[in-house]
Amino acid sequence: MAHDPYAAAGVSIDAGDELVRRIAPLARATARAGALPSLGGFGAFFDPRAAGYTDPLIVATTDGVGTKLKLAIETGVHDGVGQDLVAMCANDLIVQGAEPLFFLDYFACGALDVGVAERVIGGVARGCELAGCALVGGETAEMPGMYAADDYDLAGFAVGAVERGQQLTGAGVAPGDRIVGLASSGAHSNGFSLIRRIVAGSGLRWGETAPWAERQSLGEALLTPTRIYVRALLPLVRGGGVKALAHITGGGLIENPPRVLPQGCRAVIDAGAWPLPPVFGWLRDTGGLTPRDLARVFNCGIGMIAITAAGEAEALVAALHAAGEQASIVGRIEAGERCSIVHGAAGTWGRADAWETA
Question: Do 214 and 313 reside in the same domain of the chain?
Fold first, then answer.
């Protein structure tokens, strides 16, 4: 066998070729109208007219998974973080009224383990199917010396479209509107630096049973993939019943709602309007977190909020239930300085007295 100086330097071209061969059928399974087959080329074409658009605005977003990846690497559970990656991007697109059209991923590692990479990108493909967008390409970068041999990083890039004039800007939000919360599947992809610190202080190992989930290990429970809300929300957004959406990511229920509010409006969220999922109760108790800590770091069980007129809120909740989402009215819009206020009565989120935080 001929000497391969690049392989000797720690980069395997053969492994990269094998990965492309394995993921090609995964990408093909995400095909949709407008996407032209291109995996393995230098770029990807997409035809918005073939996707049904006449005068589209193009919307682009990029994101990552954060230190949740460390948990995947330490536990060897790699199957869900690809869905997390797609969710972080696709949910940001629907917030602007845009339909996700296509997605590209960037996978960087110290040494390419084809099996691990296949599982990760398999999760990306599943996420794309859930979001209704095509996985049209990506990049795998093997960089010894930049990353440890078993480490990898992920980034995602999504492009969507919305017909001109139909984009969501939040401009129509007004005092008296209602806030509808859509349930999360867990911590999603935010707050994991704090989560890992709390777990380290607890003395629990990733393989031990999760204190709040008897049938899952601690690692598996925390690695539950981020929920993707696109299919449930897109027809409701196009139907005109939604004034604004906010994806509850880093910054939690305090920092994210104001991003879609006009001046003169504030969000007031009742923490007692939905049950705090057990994972957040455990993090609160084990980490000594206050309601303010929870509301500023985590989604606390609400992965997306929708703002609608008071008279349409119940219908929106019913439509979301019919689409398979858990949803409830969790607050209202009031006149005031643009901000988000979360409050709870005595006994809410583990506090003996009533509380409010902003």
Answer: yes
